[in-house]
Prior knowledge:
Elements: E1 2-3, E2 6-7, E3 9-17, H1 22-35, E4 40-45, E5 54-62, E6 73-78, H2 84-90, E7 91-100, E8 115-119, H3 121-128, H4 132-151, H5 155-165, H6 173-190, E9 197-198, E10 209-212, H7 213-223, E11 228-231, H8 238-251, E12 263-266, H9 270-282, E13 287-291, H10 293-309, E14 313-319, H11 336-340, E15 350-352, H12 357-374, E16 377-383, H13 384-388, E17 390-393, H14 412-416, H15 465-485, E18 490-492, E19 500-505, H16 509-521, E20 526-531, E21 533-534, H17 538-545, E22 549-554, H18 560-569, E23 576-580, H19 589-600, E24 614-615
Parallel strand pairs: 2-9, 3-6, 6-7, 7-8, 11-12, 11-13, 13-14, 14-16, 15-16, 19-20, 19-22, 22-23
Antiparallel strand pairs: 1-24, 3-5, 4-5, 10-17, 15-21, 18-20
Amino acid sequence: MNNITSVNDFVIKFANVNGTGSASANNLFAKSIFRMGLPVSPKNIFPSNIQGLPTWYEVRVSEKGYLGRRGGTDIMVSVNPQSIAADIKEVEVGGYFVYDNTKPLDLRLMRNDISFIGIPLTRICLDEYKDARQRQLFKNVIYVGALAALLNIEFDVLTGLISDQFKGKEKLIAPNVHALELGFQYAKENFACPIGITVERRDNVGDNILIDGNTACGLGAVYGGATVAGWYPITPSTSVIEGFEKYCKRLRIDPGSGQKNFAIVQAEDELAAIGMVIGASWNGARSFTATSGPGISLMSEFLGLAYFAEIPTVLIDVQRAGPSTGMPTRTQQSDITACAYASHGDTKHVLLFPSSPRDCFEMTAEAFDLAEQLQTPVIMLTDLDLGMNDNMSEPLEWDDSREYKRGKVFSADDLENMSERFGRYLDVDGDGIPYRTYPGTHPTKGSFFTRGTSRDEYAVYTESGAEYVKNMERLLDKWETAKQYVPAPEIINAKGKASVGIIHFGTSKDSTLEAVDLMAEQGVLVDTCRVKAFPFNQDVEDFVEQHDVVFVVEQNRDAQLRSLLVNDCEIAPKDLVPVLYYEGMPITAKYIASKVLAHVKGATVTPLRRKKTKKG
């Protein structure tokens, strides 16, 4: 049999039972590769129950720095009998299946085109530990030790990570290191180590870090000046608020008095949560909430109020697979339309599309500036893949000289010196953005009635059709102004004249850029345009004009970003070819390349595989 041979280029997948403590051990494995200077992309694939069902943890190792999901599994580590049959089928030809052989494997499951590596994990734990919980937890650490021998992972890197993890709990270090040694020694004594797939130290990660997007959002909210969060728990957004709370406790407590300079309120539901955010923002605080698709549905009416009453509002939507409950622990980009036009009537909301934890940090902070400058809701759409998985990212940096952009706000002195009447909805600058005041700014001037009903430029109730139209058209003027404020797209041109273009956004970025490399190998040059925000600026329209055919890559069924491009930029639908993927797992480069090439020249894509030469 020809085994896969590879150095620093493979996909390994761990098949576990949810709730058995495997996440910590699997994370230890991913971090060990990262500390050896190799780019990694871990994906936690878990069910929506508390414990008992199958869960997987997939790690892509790529010396070249490809971070998108590759597809396929070269090494499967199976410690879950429930999924073993499917897990065996998933292994690539020439791959390796590492499993607990305390009980013999059903011969009907055997394949003759992969290598089986049996390690008696349960028996080792029964012999070594008396406590049932210890047996379960250390079983996970033992297989990481065995992988260190099989893949040539530097053992001192693992022990260093153990020491870091249990700093302050030193009594736990020795037992965990011992469990690593048990697995390492068993593999060394019973198998030819290393196998065909190995890791070698490199210096390919620089100063990058591993961090999940939700944590980065929480920290970005702190640095962005947020002091209030109203929220209701929902997967996969809950850890955004947890991250915000963690960093507030470190950075927003007065060291002298111990006074908390923040408020986090868990509301009774999503409607109450967004209502709290709007109220706090109206009062001058920087406030936000985090939710997912079902929460967006419930918050829509309040978002319409914030749009029409022009109240700064920040919302982070960590998207999951819908509709309804859908697949709550799978990823998608399927809330685009719902967020762009949230609420009844004519509304348009500013959207931001981060693609990395650093984007999550920076765009969260920027969202507060945009919301106050534009006096409107700003919704940042991340997703489960980015939000809940560790991602390799550039360090999060902040310029301490940066000042918050609070937009057009009249101070007490401004109001005192005004001779004309204050009009809350007057467009005095021609950009569609009126001036506002904070409650209580002046004892007699600058007050107004905030309402969701129609009103004139002075916030006085009216049912005049002419006044209503004037207000709605001013909101469109503000929408045009927003194009100057939102982040511009990132355009990458091929090395040579390209007639093909790809528009992508969010977490489709890594796979799209890898797909461009794949297609270049087949002679097809492709330019890319990464959309970072809605509304789209002129650069996006120009990109479409400059190419014979433009593909729009997105992870939903209904080509929602494409629809926004057609509607908002008045681009002909025939000029935009959708590339859609919505199975709940992140999109792959091979999928993107196959769809584009099939359309461009009817070509096929060569799989991203290494040569299989080693006999075994």
